[in-house]
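Figure 2 data, in text form.
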Amino acid sequence: MLKTAFGAAAPRVERHYPARRFPSPIAAAGRVFSDSGWICPSWKAGREHARKAPTYAYVFTDPSAPTPSGQPLPAHVRPATAHGAETFYLFDFPDAPGLTADQRRLADQLVGYWTRFIRTGDPNGAGSTTWPRLNTADSALNLAPDAVRPVNIKVAHHCGLWF
């Protein structure tokens, strides 16, 4: 699959994403295509935007989050988080699946960050983990029920490989 997708660069990609570090080869491939096709292009676009205005990036990582389809992610692709899963943490949908106590705490944090950003242009506030601006440090905020913390998105997602 890597050879088909990346040609001569496949061995280099495989070195950055060795299958042994993932629960399955499919999970490794999911991470490759998530990083190369979504996370790193978003990081790159955010870096461009940050030249003109304060910019904040995040990665939502709750592998047990409800999925927009309502179906759990298959075990062979985990740990992973479905795109758009954070919407259940931000909005009260009438038929939304319930959140655990830890997920509810994370939802409260997300709503706090988003509302402060809407009001002031800065998501940070007293009592919350500082959300660093996306700048030359390549910082983003990793949002997970067990840890909200800054992360170097370029390093964590091998963005140097993709750009």
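Caption note: The chain has one domain: 2-162.
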